[in-house]
Amino acid sequence: MRAGHGDYVVNDEALAYMRARALAGPLVARLSGHADRVFADRAAWIDHLERLGVAALKVHPDPVLIATEGALWGSIKAHGLLADAAIVSDDAGQFNVGPHGLCWVHAERLVHKLDTFTDAQRAAQRRIRGLIWPFYRSLKAWRRHPSPARKATLSARFDRIFGHKTGFATLDRLLARLHANKSELLTVLERPEIPLNTNGSENDIPCQVTKRKISGGTRSDAGRDCRADATRRSCRIRGREPGTDRIPAAPQLCPGRPEPRRRRP
Questions:
Q1: Is this structure's pTM higher than 0.85?
Q2: Same domain assignment for residues 47 and 137
Q3: Which residues form the domain of 129?
Q4: Which of 15, 35, 155, 239 is the most exposed place for a label (fewest CB within 10 A)?
């Protein structure tokens, strides 16, 4: 995303990101009040966080993570990158940066997967889904041929659909939650060029996810360390050095005790 740039920048965009991610006010003040604002590489940035006492804090959310994400975003904006980009996501927090829209397929799926236990609840669920999908098709049509007049109509229609009171408490709470996300669900009314869902990007990624699963990859450094620790312990039990191609079967843990009977195939 930084197009080869390796610096970290604390500017207005970086500070706004940190505040949006609930970084403590005193920490934001330390970063914003310091004379150093641009750091050549990760080592210089981490050294700066250590000198400010940020790295020593063991709190949630992780201040080093949020500050680093903010400085990365500041670098992106400082170099004029992604100036007109908008991110469309499934509402996962890590994607909530810059101009942001929500995927309609994921939003409707919340209604579709809602657990129902009575005929009245199932009827309410069907009725709301029957309103959402025609509205989605209307948004697709508007996206192809934007119209200021239709924009106001679609906004009012959104309010009517997600302002419904069905009497099904769980569904009503979900509708209120989706209504609170109106600006992100209707980002397309301001940016007709962006997609209404994340299907395109999700269709591009499965092969990489499958490769990661098959090769035993992990999503985080902590996961990698746990996997390595488990491998070392397993090798130690089997009397084998880590990194060898094959690990022999584990020795019998209780000598003299008969092996457990195995079921016939």
A1: no
A2: no
A3: 100-201
A4: 35
Nearest alpha carbon to residue 177 among 166, 165, 162:
162
Residue 246 lies in a domain: no
Q: What is the pLDDT of residues 66-88, one digit of tens each?
A: 999 999 989 998 888 877 777 78
Alpha helices of 52-147 — where are they, by DSSP H?
Answer: 63-78, 104-112, 119-144
Q: Identify whether residues 212 and 178 lie together within a single domain.
A: no
DSSP for 205-242, written as a single string: SHHHHHHHHHTT--SSHHHHHHHHHHHHHHHHHHT--T
Q: 16, 20, 28: which is closest to 94 by C-alpha?
A: 20
Backbone Cα Rg of the chain: 26
**Residue 200 in this model has a pLDDT that exceeds 80:** no
The tokens describing 85, both together, are: 């980009």
Strand partners, 39: 8
Evaluate whether residue 111 is within a structural domain: yes
245 belongs to a structural domain: no
Query: Are 128 and 175 spatial neighbours (Cβ–Cβ below 8 Å)?
Result: yes
Structural tokens at position 248: 């022999």
Helix 12-20 and helix 25-33, axial crossing angle in degrees, nearest 10: 170
CB-side exposure of 130: number of CA atoms within 13 Å? 6
